[in-house]
Design goal:
Length: 107
């Protein structure tokens, strides 16, 4: 990969991260339990094999709906093999590194 392509991918990654953080802030106004990780997990699930090659492809992030994210979060919590009754107290709190998903999206 050339230096220009690598730099372009890095810039795209930074824009996508900011877009997701902005959308997460919007969701937090409705439901404070939603995290950046929840939004990125949902994106990875929805986009599956589709790759985002530039910022205009990433505009899909702004079309996300909060009810879909919450439904996805609920399904994730329910289908977890290690689920116990204690998890239902607050099954929305998890933190992971946010840059990991960008590598998957950009391929």
């Amino acid at each position: 990969m050339s230096k220009v392509n690598k730099m372009q991918r890095e810039v795209t990654c930074n824009y996508l991260i900011k877009m997701i953080e902005l959308k997460t802030l919007e969701f937090k106004l409705i439901n404070p339990n939603i995290t950046v990780k929840n939004v990125t997990d949902y994106l990875l699930d929805v986009l599956k094999s589709r790759k985002i090659t530039d910022v205009s492809d990433g505009a899909y992030i702004f079309n996300l709906k909060v009810n879909r994210i919450i439904e996805f979060m609920n399904n994730q919590g329910i289908t977890d093999n290690n689920l116990s009754l204690d998890n239902f107290k607050d099954m929305f709190t998890t933190k992971k590194i946010k840059n990991k998903f960008i590598l998957v999206l950009l391929g």
